[in-house]
């Protein structure tokens, strides 16, 4: 008998940093085991598919970027389907399932996926499978894995329904246009880790590998003395379980060492976003005292001889390298210490089984090994399960092999989250914990993501300081932990701190020149304009700024700009300005204290409200500790600025521990001053956001 041909479905992905593509590739790889064939394309390749005529089910995997925008690769697609002239039955023929990726730490969670999902519904498309919304803040795999598991049965049912429709249409041609099936009630579902609520396909039909282990061998994996699980060992029931592990990703990269010399590519070749600028660092100031919990630095860059332009409120990106000692350690573990300066040629492996395999755009076709590991690959990235699965094949010790299998398995999802994801474990930590694991260079290129440039808020005004660009950052510290044996500094902040150490000086007045020295050090930057987080176009409009810690950075630029405008336009009317600032200790980390007093004195800043969360007080009534507390004390003024004077409200800083609390405080203020219930107040805040009068520049 002839084998029945595999049934086709269309698989589209829209990715910004590669996660959606990787998940789509996993779906593509598993499809064959279920008797299906995925026709996979990037959603931007609109010449390779046509939803207007698509008859087969469509699966879409889409991420979210920026402040809730679809990824760059989906912009053309989204613009096309948002055409208001399209009729409401434009996609009435279309069956689809959508998996959205996002991060609930940000305001517009999974908005890229929601936008496409909502518009497809408006145009008549029918979901054949519940929409999944995966949350990167708790682990995408908690939703992605069960969503993929349930996809196959839903696809087969959709394909069967399609076949029945086709048979019926062939039999009753004359009435085909009048037949329609009532859409069954399908509600968008934010899948959670409670996967028992999902209707999953039988375990035996999964596309993943299933590993079983005899109980006699268990003592090789988890010795009796180990009563608590860790990165390197497990305990029952996991240590005694048969495992469902992902399919082995196909190899697709090969690396050839070349016995020739030459120069590496310029860093500009690493930037796909447009032109980059190599600029000198002219000044560095430590803004915090030595005994402060965090070290905050201000750096000044000379952009006078460049075409780099910015507005206060904009951000820009710094191209940074991996830590030199970490690169050396990695070379040593790979057994390539002597070949770091050798040139390598990277190309796609002939005959690879990877669908649509292409040369990674962030890897030069020819450069030194050190250049690739230093400037191209994010060696600090948290390894994904597909990477762990590939590392299994490079591990010789049986116990280590089993533990890696557990960590990438469905049964080991909790251990993966706790010991790898939440512990911020990277490749070097894994290779230290599993010494018999010896991956190839090609495997690292296949699985490590692009080393991303780091984004910073501008903390200056080009009008106030022509030819200068300032920014502020905390030097990020990652303490050692059971899963991570050494402490580390942030990739970019640690590099910048080391780079400017020779000209660094502690100064109470960051705008002063005392002790200033000059450096020949340069950094490569490129602009990342912010389309919304800018001063009001009308200078008479009042605004409120909330920026504790380094969140004050863009507001220094705002105030510098406002001061210069006041000096140049004495006949203009300027609205009042409020700044709410907070830090731990008044005498240790009160950033820009002297500058703020100057702005207050000359009238640029109308109101300055500060709080200190760790300072003790002898007052009968304890002073407020956090900016949201101070906001509540100024409720009438805040409401007046927002409601009566149609002012603007800006928030900059930590999302999880500040911005959400500030948002809650504003809702309480609006509710109280409007004499409305909380729901009405939330609607008012939503309207402020919609009108771009409540603006955030936050990070997690």
From TrEMBL:
Q: Which cofactor does it need?
A: FAD; FMN
> For this UniProt entry, what is the primary localization, expressed as one broad class?
cytoplasm
Q: Name one Pfam family in it.
A: Flavodoxin_1
Q: Which GO terms describe its molecular function?
A: [methionine synthase] reductase (NADPH) activity; FAD binding; FMN binding; NADPH binding; NADPH-hemoprotein reductase activity
Question: Does the record carry Transmembrane as a key word?
Answer: no
Its BP terms in the Gene Ontology are: cobalamin metabolic process; folic acid metabolic process; homocysteine catabolic process; methionine biosynthetic process
Domain Flavodoxin-like intervals: 9-152
Q: Which residues form the FAD-binding FR-type domain?
A: 274-536
The EC number on file is: 1.16.1.8
Task: Give the top-level enzyme category.
Answer: oxidoreductase
Q: Does the keyword Cytoplasm apply?
A: yes
- What keywords appear on the UniProt entry? Amino-acid biosynthesis, Cytoplasm, FAD, Flavoprotein, FMN, Methionine biosynthesis, NADP, Oxidoreductase, Phosphoprotein, S-adenosyl-L-methionine
Q: Name one GO cellular component term.
A: nucleoplasm
What is catalyzed by this enzyme?
2 cob(II)alamin + A + 2 H2O + 2 H(+) = 2 aquacob(III)alamin + AH2
**Gene3D superfamilies from the UniProt entry:** 3.40.50.360, NADPH-cytochrome p450 Reductase, Chain A, domain 3 (1.20.990.10), Nucleotide-binding domain of ferredoxin-NADP reductase (FNR) module (3.40.50.80), Translation factors (2.40.30.10)
* Localization of this protein: Cytoplasm
- SUPFAM superfamilies (UniProt xref): Ferredoxin reductase-like, C-terminal NADP-linked domain, Flavoproteins, Riboflavin synthase domain-like
The subunit field of the Swiss-Prot or TrEMBL record says: Forms a multiprotein complex with MMACHC, MMADHC and MTR.
Q: What is this protein called?
A: Methionine synthase reductase
* Taxonomic lineage: Eukaryota, Metazoa, Chordata, Craniata, Vertebrata
Chain's gene name: MTRR
